[in-house]
Write a structure and sequence with these properties.
globular; three-stranded antiparallel beta sheet; binds s-citryldethia Coenzyme A
Length: 432
């Protein structure tokens, strides 16, 4: 539905005879937006490196209030979803806009369960990688390759094709993820099981072997499900924006999700959970924390406290609070009394939150600060942490891709402030 202006922004520019009038739109929540689309015709571009002040699209899916530390998925607060819902129900909500009825939920869960296997030939794809390949490299490659197996459903203008593709990706991404782990260990791949829940199935594909089943602890499975749920979606973050940009060219959804996985891999984004554990390992002991806080504050030192800070949250990331509580539940279930890594993380958090640099810059723990400690306690290796994030985030990526493709959209094509050489003539080699 086209936006209607609720106000007008008037832009007066030195030397321009007439001010430029720009429509202002109001959303259901959050800041109003100024539609700058007509500026090009007036000979101007907007300039916003990193898109700090740019709304790239309309969306109904997720709302974040960074100042208040609020995160809503289709209007439901993340705290309530973490407490009462589960990852597959949230997948349904993100895709369809409403919570499922009992019958809709049963049908959705059954559909997902019946798409968890990957094509048998996809298994051979893994053998092209070195055993020590980073699993995110495998995830990018294998997910992108899925489009080679599903020629029957690549018409992005067909809503039924979009629906089956969404189900296939949500169902298969945990299988692909667990296979990337098994491949690194030299153990055989473990087939999915339809008698288990989404998180239980993922854990058994990760840790079962042909010699013995993996007994899934209900607390660990609940923690795993909650980790997937907390990562499911987060508005127009870097990887979701990547999926939308790739999708805006008409690329197939498997290629778009592979692009999202690639963008998520960076340590400033989804790679931060792995970077937090590596950072805590580097700090080594509580007595070294002050030294590293100093490094983080030193403009000339590239070191940052990983898992801290956020482009949008200038308050506690509500997911980090739930993650911290889950961390205590898992460590208690595992009978881990005083986990040195957790102790160091809590000491680091306390010191940072009391330091005027972090207070002034409004830097708080984000979703990645505690997630790695839980994953490590569950027995998931550090290099698999971002794979877990990608597995959780897949429904969000697909929901945004589907939201864009099901309505009117344009190919994304930003412009630039050109600061290079002005026009000059070619100089033959002999004269140079
Ligand atoms: C995720 O966008 C999303 O929604 C992402 C995500 C999702 O669910 O999709 O929430 C997931 O990616 C969480 C963020 C994970 N990344 C990290 O934990 C890496 C460490 N954090 C930083 O790299 C940083 O905070 C970012 C990248 C997260 C945000 O960077 P911004 O918004 O570009 O902010 P900035 O780099 O301009 O920082 C503002 C100031 C700077 O100082 P000044 O230049 O103003 O003097 O704060 C400083 C930064 O130097 N700063 C930090 C810091 N983060 C920012 N200083 C020390 N340690 C940090 N972690």
């Amino acid at each position: 539905m086209a936006n209607e202006a609720t106000k007008t922004a008037t832009l007066s520019i030195d030397g321009e005879a007439e001010p430029i009038e720009l429509p202002v739109y109001q959303g259901a929540e959050g800041p109003n937006v100024i539609d700058v689309g007509k500026l090009t015709a007036q000979g101007y571009f907007t300039y916003d490196p990193g898109f700090v002040s740019t709304a790239s699209c309309d969306s109904d899916i997720t709302y974040i209030d960074g100042d208040q530390g609020i995160l809503l998925h289709r209007g439901y607060p993340i705290e309530q979803l973490a407490e009462h819902s589960n990852h597959l129900e949230l997948c349904y909500l993100l895709l369809n806009g409403e919570l499922p009825s009992t019958e809709e939920n049963e049908r959705f869960v059954s559909t997902i369960k019946n798409h968890t296997m990957v094509h048998e030939q996809l298994r051979r794809f893994y053998s092209g990688f070195r055993r020590d390949a980073h699993p995110m490299a495998i995830m990018c490659g294998v997910t992108g390759a899925l489009s080679a197996f599903y020629h029957d459903s690549l018409d992005i203008d067909d809503s039924e094709h979009r629906r089956i593709t969404a189900h296939r990706l949500i169902a298969k991404i945990p299988t692909i993820a667990a296979m990337s782990y098994k491949y690194s260990t030299g153990q055989p791949f473990i087939y999915p099981r339809n008698d288990l829940s989404y998180a239980e199935n993922f854990l058994q594909m990760m840790f079962a072997t042909p010699c013995e089943d993996y007994e899934v602890s209900p607390t660990i499975a609940k923690a795993m499900d909650r980790i997937f749920l907390l990562h499911a979606d987060h508005e127009q973050n870097a990887s979701t924006s990547t999926v939308r940009l790739a999708g805006s060219t008409g690329a197939n959804p498997f290629a778009c999700i592979a692009a999202g996985i690639a963008a998520l891999w960076g340590p400033a984004h989804g790679g931060a959970n792995e970077a937090v554990l590596n950072m805590l390992d580097e700090i080594g002991s509580v007595k070294n924390i002050d030294k590293y806080i100093k490094k983080a504050k030193d403009k000339d030192d590239p070191f940052r406290i990983m898992g801290f800070g956020h482009r949008v949250y200038k308050n506690y990331d509500p997911r980090a609070k739930v993650m911290q509580q889950t961390c205590h539940e898992v460590l208690e279930e595992l009978g881990v009394e005083d986990d040195p890594i957790l102790e160091m993380a809590q000491a680091l958090e306390k010191i940072a939150l009391e330091d005027e640099y972090f207070v002034e810059k409004r830097l708080y723990p984000n979703v990645d600060f505690y997630s790695g400690i839980i994953l490590k306690a569950i027995g998931i290796p550090v290099e698999m942490f971002t794979v877990i994030f990608a597995t959780g985030r897949t429904p969000g990526w697909i929901a945004h891709w589907n939201e864009m493709i099901s309505g009117p959209y344009k190919i994304g094509r930003p412009r630039q402030l050109y600061k290079g050489a002005t026009k000059r003539d070619y100089e033959p080699l002999a004269n140079r």
